[in-house]
Amino acid sequence: MRIGVIGVQGDVSEHVDAVARAMKDYGKEGEAIAVRRPADLARVDGLTIPGGESTTISKLLVKLGLFDEIVRRAIDEGMPIMGTCAGSILLSKDAGSQAEKTKTRLLGLMDMAVDRNAFGRQRESFEADLEVQGLDSPFHCVFIRAPAILRTWGDCTQLSRYKDRIVLARQGHLIASAFHPELSGDLRIHRWFLDLV
Ligand code: GLN
Q1: What is the 65 CA–ligand 1 centroid distance (Å)?
Q2: Ligand 1 mean position to 112 CA, how many Å?
């Protein structure tokens, strides 16, 4: 299998490393590559969208001719996608007034509404050990200017919460994480993703 990491902005190399490590640890043959052009996207079987700045990533995806093809492959071919932090914002159908004001185009693939920078200034970055549905021990979650998932509907399932906020959700072949599973050294969420590919 070949997994792509959207490589236009944000913590790309951390993601490439984490995906490559997860493949090795879980005995999957393949490679992780950064995706910057349509030709890269055409070569991958699954995609991760890293954290960064969602407005910037969205604009670059459009500019580089990747945006529509990601949507098409996710819908027509069921290509698995894992979006973390800014990536989860892009997967959502509704990212609130900030996204509207900045005219951020959303991939709109998951039945969920998110709130950008939901944890406010004083909590720009924090870490918490959280229960995750389907994992038998807590996951160490790193949040960096993180969004929160405000609500889900349809086929989107909530998998983890921090206080009253949803921070991990899944809808079929799509996973959205408000935190950064590539930064904790724990690759169990990556494993789910690889199992979907
Ligand atoms: N705050 C960023 C946004 O709204 C996301 C932060 C991140 O990806 N670490 O796009």
Answers
A1: 22
A2: 17
- Quick one: DSSP state of residue 120? T
Domains in the chain: boundaries? 2-196
* Whether the Cβ atoms of residue 70 and residue 106 lie closer than 8 Å to each other: no
Q: Among 29, 27, 36, 42, which residue's Cα sits nearest to residue 5?
A: 36
12-25 and 188-196 are packed helices; what angle lies between their axes, rounded to 10 degrees? 80
The pLDDT of residue 122:
66
Of the candidates 20, 39, 17, the one whose C-alpha atom is nearest the C-alpha of residue 28 is 20
Q: Tell me, which fold does domain 2-196 have in CATH?
A: Rossmann fold (3.40.50)
Q: What is the mean pLDDT of residues 159-174?
A: 97
Global pTM? 0.96
178: tokens are 């408000």
Q: CA 38, CA 16: separation in Å to the nearest integer? A: 18
Tell me which amino acid residue 171 is.
Answer: Q
Distance (Å, whole) CA 69 – CA 41 = 8
Task: Look at 72-76, 96-100, 120-124 and tell me which has the smallest mean pLDDT.
Answer: 120-124
Pocket mutation for ligand 1, best pick of 144, 167, 182, 184 (most atoms within 8 Å of C-beta): 144
At 148-165, the pLDDT tens digits run: 999 999 999 999 999 999
Going by the DSSP 8-state scheme, the letter that residue 170 receives in this structure is: E
Pocket test for ligand 1, best of 9, 15, 49, 53 (most atoms within 8 A of CB): 53
